[in-house]
Amino acid sequence: MEPNETTKLLLKLVESAEQLDALLTRETAHQEVFQPHNTALRSQLEQFAVELILLSPGDYGRAAEELLWTKVYYDLKSLRKIKGALVDRESPEGAYREHFKNGIHVYHRLFFSVQAQFDLKLDNYIYWPSSQPWSQAKRAGSPSVEEMDWARKFCHRCLLRIGDLYHYLKDFTDSGEKQAKRYYYRALSLLPDMGLPFMHLATLSGAKFYYVEATCFYQCCLYSKVPHAGAILGLEQIYLEIEEEYRRLPRGPQGKLGPEQKAREDVGRLLVSFVYLQSLLTPNGRRHPELESLCESVLDDLELCLSYLSIQEGQGWARGPGAEQKRGSLLPNQVVFQMVILCLLTLENLKKAKSEVSKTALSFSLMFFSLIVRLLGWNIQAALQRRLAPGREERLEPKTEKPWLEEAWPELPAPQRASVNAGELSGSEREPRFSVAPPGPEDSWEDSEPMDISEPDGTWDSYRVLDDSEDSGDVSFCSLPDSDSSFSEGLSREREVERPSEEDAIGSSWTLPNAQALQERLEILCAEGLLPALRVILQWLASQPAL
């Protein structure tokens, strides 16, 4: 296309956008948005934008891409959000749903067209048989490095736009959120250095699990090679909200609660306190007076709440920011994984800033990790007992005085139950884990290698574990190394108290045919949902020779 023709096409596109802007300024915009004239206007703008994107990439095409998204889809979503029930009442039934579905189809075709033009071989990123590209012809000549870079980034943005449209469809279909996550992760797979998909995942998570998911995604965005400044604002807003939530937590006894209600209260307190603790462990922050006591409280609550990991198909959250979790575990494995990731990212940020709270954060994280690893060991031991030696668990210690713990985790041997009960002791009854002294020269760990929480090949499945524990990965089992620091004494004391007896241990005396025994053990290990958490803990420990 000649330059003057391209300019004319751009002018037509801008004119259509201005007419749509004029529509949105009217008081009756929610009544007129789907009238035939305005629907035709959006279709016309879409046609002009697609032509410019395909004919003038990286130049006018970038402006056309922005106008296509803003004027045809984002503005309508904003109008529906502002007008609320008025829009749904005045618009034809299902109009918004069909409009956003059509948008998914448009971006699919754009994706296929650009990847075909530049021969990017990205067909496996989208499966949509009915979507045919507008053009399957390859570009004449060899594209430049700049053009190839534009094409990959454009396909990356297409995946994000498809994810956003599924996010908008969350109000209309149950599969909207799941599909949105899928495309955000595929965008991460295509360009792993970009932090923007984490921003979208954080927005999609909202207040779920008292902001643990959103906080994790925002931190991952900031830790990316190409971070997005919006994550800072998102974290600030979360920290303001979570501080208010923390101040509203009930203090002292709450009276007699049923098992499910008590479980919700315990896990809610853990998640709120944990995110509030993250807000205090910031590189530019100063030592807070309640920091050490808060660390103790979070660890005690974690010790108490780990039993809820095995409650499946419960009633979930009934109120509060966790209300999105209707059913399933109160403390899912992926949330525990995200808490581990947050601990690691916080440690990295504090280390870079040489913060005075680094020592406290390190001590807290090691204790936190030790609880997770201990729980994983008990899970595997209990599963092996049930599978390889049926009936053996009947010889375990008698039940504790807390039947709700027994129902949540009936197979645990006595030492683990004792450790869970210990989580309810008051601060005065427990030996403190933390030193309030500022770090000294001997506590430095600056020479350690930088943390790497992603897969070396950058495949998108490596990110799924941030909210989906299906990807257990290749995990090597080994003992955590004892540290020469002051933390080792506390960890050693816990190991001495909680080490299972020989009677309860999984011994070599259990004999099965070798092939069958190996298969049984592999199935048990692969089914353990905390393996991804163990994997990143071991990766981090391996990169910290000073510990």
Automatic annotation (TrEMBL):
What are the residue boundaries of the DNA/RNA-binding domain, all occurrences included? Answer: 180-381
Which InterPro entries does the entry link to?
DNA/RNA-bd_Est1-type, Est1-like_N, Est1/Ebs1-like, TPR-like_helical_dom_sf
GO biological process per UniProt: nuclear-transcribed mRNA catabolic process, nonsense-mediated decay
Compositional bias of kind Acidic residues: 443-455
What domain of life does the native source organism fall in? Eukaryota
Q: Where is the composition biased (Basic and acidic residues)?
A: 393-405, 491-502
> Which cellular components does GO assign to this protein?
telomerase holoenzyme complex
**Residue ranges constituting the Telomerase activating protein Est1-like N-terminal domain according to the UniProt record:** 64-170
One example of the protein's molecular function in GO is: telomeric DNA binding
Residue ranges, annotated region (Disordered): 393-507
One Pfam annotation reads EST1_DNA_bind
Give the UniProt keywords, A-Z. Answer: Nonsense-mediated mRNA decay
- The protein in question is named SMG5 nonsense mediated mRNA decay factor
